[in-house]
Amino acid sequence: MQIGIDQLAFYTPSTYLDLVDLAHARGEEPDKYRIGIGQYEQAVIPVTQDAVTLAANAAAKVVDETNRDQIAMVLFGTESGIDNSKSAAVYLKRLLNLPDNIRAIELKQACYGATAGVQFAHDYVFLHPDKQVLVIGADIARYGLNTPGEVTQGGGAVALTISAEPKLLNLDNETAFKSEDIMDFWRPLYRTEALVDGRFSENVYIDFFKTVWQDYQQQTNRTIADFTAFAFHLPFTKMGLKALRAILPEASEAQQKQLMANFEASRQYNQRVGNLYTGSLYLSLRSLFDNASLKPGERIGLFSYGSGAEGEFFSGTISEQFDVQVSRDEFANFFKNRQRLNMPEYERLFSQQLPAHDVLLDLSHDDARFVLTGIKHDQRQYLDRQQA
Ligand code: CAA
Q: Which of 22, 31, 80, 152 maximizes ligand 1 atoms within 8 Å of its Cβ, making it the mutation to test the pocket?
């Protein structure tokens, strides 16, 4: 029996910032952002979207009447939680009209949370092959205006269904992981923006990647020659390029060309959305699926990294039923119809924060199906416009 990723959908709002505009405003060379960092555009998230609504807008694309009753768990990876106690998964479960006899849990370890969900889901479906697990990675990446991290902001959500006989990727059982208490990136409870030791975080990412890659090879006797492509957690896409370059000399010249071409395919969407923390690896995988020419049976390597820190290298093979045309069209359409913000509009949207008291939000600039309408009696109020 094969177990893996059956569906993989993405949502982010249509408002975005062109990073050439940001470079001009911050007195930087546009090439520093486009080549040095590897980012072109950045999703800007309005105050009427939070981790729950981003997730609901993505998950509505993978949950319908055909699989709603099969879903046994919602595993919600996020580091943009909306409550210190109640999980975002429980709100999502209600918004999606999922049945009551399910588990709905939030998972946190920085950008690694969704991968924990994928691995727990894999093991659950192994024991319950007639069930599916809905895994979410939903975040808003914020460093602050005029900070070095500003160019690596972004946000959005991925929603994956993990099932037996999946249509996209059959996950291999072998996986290599590592955790260590490190202060490279963190966000204390009282802060809305992350704290980061930028260069150090890049070095830890590469060290973790090399360690788990070695461990994986020892466990499996596979080498780089067994892989058609790699997908990485992409806080900014140059980070993945640095990781790939760290192992590229292990490949033949011809394979190096193929791996580099597939890396370009894997970063197209991320270059235009920015960091989405937990969802970043899976947006990159979606980008790889849609923009490379992959064939059934080909093996993909995945590196997940969550600061603080946890790293995991795992793999999967392309499913026999692999078909990406619908997703390709959806992304092309989305990018074509986005709304470009100028700098003052971006700074205004970015600076709007939810107050710590009751509020009714202006929804006129948010056309999403699921929106946050405000706060009442310290409770976030959500609206599904299709039910309204
Ligand atoms: N043309 C081309 N390249 C240029 C250039 C130009 N005109 N000007 C500069 N560059 C290059 C630099 O040479 C440098 O390249 P290398 O990294 O290959 O050396 C690159 O552009 C960046 O330049 P700087 O190092 O000067 O950039 P910076 O000091 O402004 O900060 C950063 C860059 C550290 C990534 C910062 O944006 C940051 O802190 N980001 C957030 C932290 C982060 O994402 N860390 C990743 C690992 S942690 C993680 O993965 C978890 C997570 O999601 C956060």
A: 152
How sure is the predictor about 282, in pLDDT bands with cuts at 50, 70 and 90? Answer: very high
Q: Whose CA is nearest to atom 35 of ligand 1?
A: 198
* Beta-bridge partners for 132: 71
Q: What is the pLDDT of residues 16-67, one digit of tens each?
A: 999 999 999 999 999 999 999 999 999 999 999 999 999 999 999 999 999 9
Neighbours of 20 (CB within 10 A): 14
Burial class (CB in 10 A: 0-12, 13-18, 19+), 264: middle
The CA–CA distances, whole Å, from 379 to 229, 344, 358 equal 44, 31, 8
3-state secondary structure of 325: helix
The string of DSSP codes covering 37-86 is I---EEE---TT--HHHHHHHHHTTT-STTTGGGEEEEEEE-SS-S-SSS
Q: Are strands 169-179 and 310-318 parallel, antiparallel or unpaired?
A: antiparallel
d(CA 84, CA 81): 7
- Regarding the beta carbon of 209 and ligand 1, being less than 6 Å apart is answered no
Q: Rounded distance, CA 295 to CA 247, Å?
A: 23
How many CB atoms within 10 Å of residue 164? 17
* pLDDT above 90 for 388: no
* Ligand 1 atom with the shortest distance to the CA of 29: 7
What does the buried/exposed string (b/e) look like for 29-39 if buried means 16 or more CB atoms within 10 Å of the residue's CB?
Answer: ebeebbeebbb
